[in-house]
Amino acid sequence: MKHVKTSAGFEAEIDEGCFDDLELLDAVVALEAGDSTVLSLVLDKVLGEAKTALYDFVRDEKGRVPVKTATAIVTEIFQELAPKNG
Question: Are 66 and 58 in contact (CB under 8 A)?
Answer without folding.
Answer: yes
